[in-house]
Amino acid sequence: MKKNILALSFFACVGIITSSCASSSGGKSPFLATADSLENNSQPVAKTIITGADQTSEYLKYLRGKRVAMVVNQTSIIGKTPSVDSLLALGINIVKIFGPEHGFRGNASNGAKVSDEKDPKTGISVISLYGKLKKPSKEHLADVDLVIFDIQDVGCRFYTYINTLDHVMESCAENNKELMILDRPNPNGYVVDGPILENHLYSGIGMHKIPITHGMTMGEFAQMLNGEKWLPGQLQCKLKIIKVANYTHDTPYDLPVFPSPNLNSQQSIVLYPSICPFEGTIVSQGRGTYMPFTVLGAPLLKGKYEFSFTPKSIPGMSETPLHQNQECYGVDLRKYDVASLRKSKQINLKLLIEMYKAYPDKAKFFDMSQSKQMGNFDKLAGTENLKKQIISGVSEEEIRKSWEPGLTDYKNMRKKYLLYQ
Predict the structure, then answer these.
(1) Torsion of CA 399, 405, 408, 414, to 10 degrees
(2) What whole-number distance in Å separates Cα of residue 269 and Cα of residue 293?
(3) 249 and 276, same structural domain?
(4) What angle is formed at CA 157 by the lines to CA 265 and CA 412, rounded to 5 degrees?
(5) Record's PROSITE patterns (predicted)?
(6) Which of 84, 197, 374, 390 is the most exposed place for a label (fewest CB within 10 A)?
(7) Which helix (H) or strand (E) holds 353?
(8) Which domain holds residue 141?
(9) pLDDT tens column, 36-62
């Protein structure tokens, strides 16, 4: 095993969409330029991305006179101001807030239960959807005319905000409430890859039969939940989607606000789809450092790699990280050229395969009993086969072949719900 960093083969129009169906049984800035302005006026100038939330002229009139509930967190902004504050200032009647994992202000640790509270700035009640409650109740929506969903996603099956969307759509459908989605770009929207979730591995980190990276925005994903009848009882949610302007799935997009405490850099966001499965192994992904999801390592890899880091308890990020206070040896991905990661449009398997080969005590690499912080690798992968294949020494090429025809079938199904090229 080389001591230097592993070479990676990595993955590397304004409008409103309305779907009206009744319930049935059946950073740089919020406006990231896609290219530098051109001095030669005879050449086309790339347009800037404008999120759904920033296009207030497209939905303010529709909101007036309605009692509005908002499903939001710290990524929910209009310009640089929290969307709740902005809409209140514009005269919109916001009666309550629903908060997802990490809380309304985004300061709760990964997996930590979040309690109900009153927002100290606005005095509006904040109801947690990441504690004992997973979806708004009938009582919560009794005084609500419309629900707004405005949360930044990063495009992965195990990133729980798509689950929050599912639960909110279910509740809206049950209670005949319309859901408005202020759509935002998917920073990993260019990659659709990984095994399709197997039914028996359904969990809080995998609720839908999709690959590891689904390649959709929240608005598109919502249309798929309706269209494939994936909501419980085949419920249908009435949707109004405010599209992102000047966006395609291949458009680079740096998030103006980081989506969770441990995705605190653009580098970590791009690496996340490939690094998160390590949470089901003995290898630390840098939780307990200020560089999570950009480093990998474990104490027993000393001598295999020169780079090292030591996880510590960090309130609000990782209170009891894997290998706490132990020096971990591994790879540093902080300076990897992320521009090259977009070319292959695949999640990375080489890191997982090579670090398994390098680990001296292979029986403990996937051993869930080693730490309560470790996730379930099979649930993260969405299949039991990947772990077996890595242990058996199956090649990357053969592993990828085993994801078919499920992956191709998903890509074809996905096309029906795309709002962007």
Answers:
(1) -120
(2) 8
(3) no
(4) 115
(5) PROKAR_LIPOPROTEIN
(6) 374
(7) helix 350-358
(8) 16-32+56-256
(9) 322 233 344 468 999 999 999 999 999
Burial (CB count within 10 angstroms: exposed 0-12, middle 13-18, buried 19+), residue 232: exposed
Residues with Cβ within 8 Å of 224's Cβ and at least 6 positions away in sequence, in order, are: 216, 230, 413, 414, 416, 417
The total number of structural domains in the chain stands at 2
Residues with Cβ within 8 Å of 26's Cβ and at least 6 positions away in sequence, in order, are 229, 234, 236
H runs (alpha helix) in 121-280: 161-174, 218-227, 266-275
158 and 271 together in one domain: no
Start-to-end Cα distance in the chain: 41
Task: Name the residue type at position 71.
Answer: V
CATH code of the domain covering residue 164: 3.40.50.12170
For residues 181 and 136, what is the distance between their CA atoms, to the nearest angstrom?
Answer: 16
50, part of any domain: no
Please indicate, yes or no, whether residues 219 and 131 belong to a single structural domain of this protein. Answer: yes
Tokens 């209140």 correspond to what residue?
88
Is residue 315 within 8 Å of 290, Cβ to Cβ? no
Instruction: For residue 47, give the amino acid letter.
Output: K
Asked if 112 and 138 sit in the same domain, the reply is yes
Residue type, 7: A
